[in-house]
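INTERNAL AUDIT FORM
Audit reference: QA-55
Scope: verify that the stored structure record matches its stored sequence.
Auditor: D.O.
Record contents follow.
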Amino acid sequence: MKTAANVTSTEVTSKNVTTKNIEKVDIKSIVICAMCIALTYIATAFINIRLPFQANGGLVHLGNVSLFIAAVLFGKKTGAIAGGIGMALFDLLSGWVLWAPFTLVIVGCMGFVVGKITEKHKGLGWILLAVFCALLIKIGGYYIAEGIIYGNWIAPVASIPGNIVQIVVGAVIAVPVIEVLNKVIVEK
C-alpha cells in the first residue's frame, strides 16, 4: 500500500495536475514569490505618505519598488503575483477593501508587463520603457476603477498626478537597486 509520502511526482496525474506542472514549480520559486509578496505588502503598508491634494484619498508608497525589482529580477510571473497579491493584500487589510479586486488586476498587469519586457530585453533603456508601460497601466487602470467605484468619470483625473508621483518615486529608487543587483548576479 502506498502512502502520500511514497508517491513520486511522476506518479501524480489528474485533470488539473500533471507531471510537467509539478516539475516546473519548485520550492525556490515559491519562496522567492512569497518573499516578494511580503516585501511588496510591507513597503506598501508601512512606507507610505497620504496625499493631501487628492480628494479621494490615495498614497505614495514604496510597494512599486519591490514590484519593479521582483518583475525585473525574477520575471513576469513573480512580478504579477508579487505586485497584485502584495498590494491587494494591503487594500484588504487597510480599509480599502473595495479597491482590492481592482488592485489585484491592475498591479498584477503592471508586474506582468514589466517582467515580460525585461525578460526579453536587458539594459537600462528597457527597464525605463517597462516602468513607463507600468505607469500607463496604473493611470488607465485606476482611472477606470475610480470611475466605476464612484460613478463619476471626471473625478478620477485628480488621481493622475498621485499615480505619476508614485511610479516615478518607485522607479527612482528601484532602477539603481536593480542595476546593482544585476551586476551582482552577473558576477556570480
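Auditor finding: record pair retrieved intact. The chain has seven helices and two strands.
Action required: none
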